[in-house]
Here is the input.
Amino acid sequence: MTFSRWTALKREALNYFLCFSLGHLDHIGKSYVRFFNEHRPHQGLGNLTVPAAATGLPEELESEPEVSRIRCERFLGGLLRHYYRAAA
Here is the structure.
């Protein structure tokens, strides 16, 4: 983990928790890294997530997108959140 990612982990996650063991610290670190790599958009990748950038841009829809409910997936007890449209 590079210095800038370590400071992001500290600033966005570790500053909000009291870690009582190495296992607890490991759980927080792994949860943050999973969120960072799978759900958080990256400016260097055209504001795409890492998996979306690896598979390429999705094809644009010809018609208007369907209206669907917005869902929220929470990480680290709600400290980190990922919003997405639910499948119709």
